Amino acid sequence: PLALGLYTVNAVYGDTITMPCRLEVPDGLMFGKWKYEMPNGSPVFIAFRSSTKKNVQYDDVPDYKDRLSLSENYTLSIKNARISDQKRFVCMLVTEDDVSEEPTIVKVFKQPSQPEILHQADFLETEKLQMLGECVARESYPEGNVTWYKNGKVLQPVKEVVVINLQKIVDKSTGLFTMTSSLQYMPTKEDANAKFSCIVTYYGPSGQKTIQSEPVVFDVHYPTEKVTIQVVSQSSTIKEGDNITLKCSGNGNPPPQEFLFYIPGETEGIRSSDTYVMTDVRRNATGEYKCSLTDKSMMDSTTITVHYLDLQLTPSGEVTKQIGEALPVSCTISSSRNATVFWIKDNTRMQTSPSFSSLQYQDAGNYICETTLQEVEGLKKRKTLKLIVEGKPQIKMTKKTNTNKMSKTIVCHVEGFPKPAVQWTVTGSGSIINKAKETKYVNGKFSSKIVIAPEENVTLTCIAENQLERTVTSLNVSAISIPEYDEPEDRNDDNSEKVNDQAKLIVGIVVGLLLAALVAGVVYWLYVKKSKTASKHVDKDLGNIEENKKLEENNHKSET
Questions:
Q1: pLDDT, tens digit, for every residue of 390-402?
Q2: Do strands 56-58 and 43-50 pair parallel, antiparallel, or not at all (unpaired)?
Q3: Domain 8-109 has what CATH class?
Q4: Where is the Ig-like domain (predicted)?
Q5: Regarding the domain delimited by 309-389, which CATH topology (the fold level of the hierarchy) does it fall under?
Q6: How do residues 327-344 score in pLDDT, each as one tens digit?
Q7: Which end of the chain lies in a sparser environment, N or C, as judged by fewer CB atoms within 10 Å?
Q8: Can you tell me the distance from the alpha carbon of 250 to that of 222, in angstroms, rounded to the nearest whole number?
Q9: Helix, strand, coil percentages for the chain (3-state, nearest 5)
Q10: Alpha-carbon distance 30 to 550, whole Å?
């Protein structure tokens, strides 16, 4: 490279400077020498080499002691380049007739250290010009320049907002420069989390280069401009018995540490930290809640609804009633929202609400009125009614001859609650019959039956007794030789009502047919009355004869 038309060697601080002698070696060369020029132009010789004796001599120059080396081709090397080596050096070749000279300019460069931001502010305050920090880059040659950046963009000086001051100090012993750039800055709220950095621009052997500092983020303080209140809850809805945590926050930095909380029913604010806790809240906690800064300058509000659910069952608990009585039942709901109500009887959900105008045994059981608020998790209420339907024992007895004609089945149909105890006796002897079989006791009904084969007419007595009453009913039963058929035995209690309905229908039909037959019979009887008179007397005599025979047979049996 050429500088002002002269050959220039660019060297790095601390490295070796190599300067070739750019002259052609002439014939008759006696020796070669190197010198440098002082600022005032006077020469200082530093190295000598003879072409004939091949010896090298170095002049006693303190700055270059033990640093010089002159090769056979008269190339001069200087170790450990310094800033003071930046001079004009001259190579001289001498013959008997002439002296040739060729100058070389030496330039030395030193890369600065990575810049650092020192004396950083602990925090920045908005609307206040303050020292942000100092960017320091050390040991540079030549001196460099410092530029400040925010979020990767150059910070240009702005009066009373961005103030930059650059200082360059040279070390007299080394000639190296230290650049210090201070930045005064007035931040805004938007500067929170902004990255500040600085870059030093310097020149090296190959041209202009830059080095960047590590970015720094400053804590920017700014006042609160808005207050916010919120309800901290694990559920989206609040019900009676829950805990409520109110949290108040301000958008300033640092955030406010104390607030005033305004609770429904309280005229004065309650001073607290940023949280206020209410435990086991009731429905009267529903209302508008507010919080503000302690100076009451800013305020925010929110509305809280405490959901509740009340259930009143009338009657409830254990209730005992008599069969046939009426029992009004009501399940009244009071809630903060529309509630869903349903009834359960003996673990089975009912389709309609219970209503008892005339209690029956099948109405007895465990009733549950249950209600829920579907939108409110965990809000459920239930109350129970244990209904007991009592009744005195009622008895109905039936008899029939079995198909084998060898026995008769006598059934005692019993109703009542508590379940009656049943005993059988035979009138006359009064003995208790223990071989009775009972059906399952369902809805206050069951049957007790015995199978007998009487050789003569007997009277059976069925006794049913519970805590309310003792009921006795008797039934005459003919000897086994005389077939008897009474009402059919109930198949089971579940379909007894259906059987009764069918029986009533059949009886109605039979009665209608009998009435029709009776009318027809009367008409016919009037028609044939006269013509049948003689025949009627004959039949009567025959009947008397048969009756006498039967009486004689019975007397004979009795004697036997």
A1: 999 999 999 999 9
A2: antiparallel
A3: mainly beta
A4: 103-212, 223-305, 324-386, 393-473
A5: Immunoglobulin-like (2.60.40)
A6: 999 999 999 888 889 999
A7: C
A8: 11
A9: 15, 50, 40
A10: 191
